[in-house]
C-alpha cells in the first residue's frame, strides 16, 4: 500500500501503539483521524501531530471504538476533512476480565472492544472498498491471539477471535482489492501492560509477568516502525517479536507438548515448581 496521501483512522490512539502508529503514518505522508475514549489525551495527540507536521494532518474524535455510531461518525469526519478512508487501524483494546471468575460484563467488554469493534468497522468500510477496488484493514490483535495469555481467558479468547476475523476478511475480500494485516506483538511498553503490575485483579500480575518474561518489551515506536514496513509490503501477519513465529510453529507441530510447556511456564511464574 502507498501510505503517502492515504487517509487513515486509528482507534485507541491516545497513547501507546495507536498514537505511535498515527505519528508514523503522518510521517509517511498520510492524514489521520485518531479516536479514543480519553478525549483530552487523544486531542493532545492530534495537536502534537499537527504541530510536528506543520499543518492539519490529524483530527481527533472521542468515543468508544466498538460503538457503531462512533464508527460511522468517525468515517464521515475523515471523509469530510481529508477524503475517503483508505486505511483503518483497529487498535483499541481492553484487558477487562481475567479467569473463570470473570463476570458477564467483563466478557462482554472484552469481546466488544477486542473483536466486535473490528467487525463493525469492516462492515462500515469494506463495501465501499470493494467498489473502489482498494482498501486496507489493520487489526491489532496480540501474540495471545496466536498462542494464549497466561492468566486471562477474556483476553486470549477475544484476541484469538480478532485474528480469526482478520484471516476471514483477507480470504473473503482479498481478491476484491481489500488488504488485511494482523498485528500480533508480545510485550510492548504501554499502559495496558504496565497496569497489570499494579492491579488487584486475580491473575493480572501473572499475566503481565508472563508477557514481560517471554521476551524483549518493545517501545510503541519500534512496533510502529514494523507496522509501516508491513503495510508497505502488504504482509498479513505482523510479528514485531520474531520469536512468536517459532512459538506458533511449535504449537502447530505438537499442541500437547506446547500445552505442557505452557503449564510448566505458568507454574514457574506462580512460584510453584513441579514435584
UniProtKB/TrEMBL annotation:
Q: Does the keyword Oxidoreductase apply?
A: yes
Q: Which Gene3D superfamilies match?
A: NAD(P)-binding Rossmann-like Domain
- What UniProt keywords apply to this chain's record, in alphabetical order? Oxidoreductase
Output the InterPro entries linked to this UniProt entry: NAD(P)-bd_dom_sf, Sc_DH/Rdtase_CS, SDR_fam
Instruction: Please list the coiled coil stretches.
Output: none
Assigned protein family: Belongs to the short-chain dehydrogenases/reductases (SDR) family.
The identity of this protein, by name, is NADP-dependent 3-hydroxy acid dehydrogenase YdfG
Recite the lineage of the species.
Bacteria, Bacillati, Actinomycetota, Actinomycetes, Mycobacteriales
Amino acid at each position: 500500500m502507498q501510505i503517502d496521501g492515504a487517509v487513515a483512522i486509528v482507534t485507541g490512539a491516545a497513547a501507546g501503539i495507536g498514537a505511535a502508529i498515527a505519528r508514523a503514518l503522518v510521517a509517511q505522508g498520510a492524514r489521520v483521524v485518531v479516536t479514543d475514549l480519553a478525549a483530552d489525551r487523544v486531542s493532545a495527540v492530534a495537536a502534537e501531530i499537527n504541530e510536528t507536521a506543520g499543518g492539519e494532518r490529524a483530527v481527533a474524535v472521542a468515543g468508544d471504538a466498538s460503538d457503531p455510531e462512533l464508527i460511522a461518525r468517525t468515517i464521515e469526519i475523515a471523509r469530510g476533512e481529508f477524503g475517503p478512508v483508505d486505511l483503518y487501524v483497529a487498535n483499541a483494546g481492553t484487558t477487562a476480565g481475567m479467569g473463570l471468575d470473570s463476570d458477564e460484563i467483563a466478557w462482554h467488554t472484552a469481546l466488544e472492544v477486542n473483536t466486535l469493534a473490528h467487525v463493525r468497522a469492516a462492515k462500515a468500510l469494506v463495501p465501499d472498498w470493494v467498489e473502489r477496488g482498494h482498501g486496507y484493514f489493520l487489526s491489532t490483535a496480540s501474540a495471545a491471539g496466536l498462542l494464549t495469555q497466561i492468566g486471562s481467558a477474556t483476553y486470549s479468547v477475544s484476541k484469538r477471535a480478532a485474528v480469526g476475523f482478520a484471516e476471514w476478511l483477507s480470504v473473503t475480500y482479498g481478491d476484491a482489492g481489500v488488504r488485511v494485516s494482523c498485528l500480533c506483538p508480545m510485550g510492548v511498553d504501554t499502559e495496558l501492560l504496565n497496569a497489570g503490575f499494579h492491579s488487584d485483579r486475580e491473575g493480572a500480575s501473572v499475566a503481565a509477568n508472563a508477557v514481560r518474561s517471554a521476551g524483549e518489551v518493545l517501545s510503541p515506536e519500534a512496533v510502529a516502525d514494523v507496522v509501516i514496513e508491513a503495510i508497505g509490503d502488504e504482509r498479513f501477519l505482523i510479528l514485531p517479536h520474531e520469536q512468536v513465529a517459532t512459538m506458533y510453529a511449535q504449537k502447530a507441530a505438537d499442541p500437547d507438548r506446547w500445552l505442557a510447556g505452557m503449564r510448566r511456564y505458568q507454574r514457574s511464574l506462580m512460584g510453584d515448581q513441579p514435584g
